[in-house]
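Technical note accompanying the year-one report. For the benefit of new consortium partners, we illustrate the data format agreed upon in the data management plan: each record pairs a sequence with a structure-token string. No post-processing was applied to the example shown here.
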Amino acid sequence: MSQQLLNSIQYLIKLSEQEADFLVSLFKRVTLKKGEYFLREGKVSTEVAFIEKGLIRYLMNHNGEEINYYFSKEDEWTGNYESMLSRKPSTKSIVALETTVLWILSAENLQKIYTSIREGDRMGRLIIEDVFVKTAQQLTSLYTGTPEERYQEFFTIFQGIEHRIPQYMIASFIGVKPQSLSRIRSRLAHKH
């Protein structure tokens, strides 16, 4: 197992040596090529994953238009918990933006962590709380922030990876057309 993954889990909870060994047996390592799907819209999500290396985007189709609504990078968790918990088909897709190495955990093995590891429930709760807070902040920004504010917030949220994300995906994330993003960038450049 990746030391990176183990460090991420041990940041959240304490693990005995036996628990760490047990965890190793629950994950499988998978590499996605750029453009490959971790989850396709219409499929029920049955896995979550830790990103060891790479970058992924979350998108949904709205009237035939792709909307990018989040990005995850190294040392973050990914998945569609909404679909996994409800066991309903996902309305969203998760796609690799570049070659991405994942440590995948099935929903069944996630339940084993909850029941077999002393602080397993706590780990799950902390990960879900993080997802909830990010989602709530993004929704608030989408409804209350101007496009300029959302653009500046993008750089705060995704600091250090903005150059790895194409401009049209950034435009989609902040809820504007690419031409509007160019105007926003120009206005902000003139202010500084």
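Partners are asked to follow this layout when depositing records. The first helix runs from residue 3 to 12.
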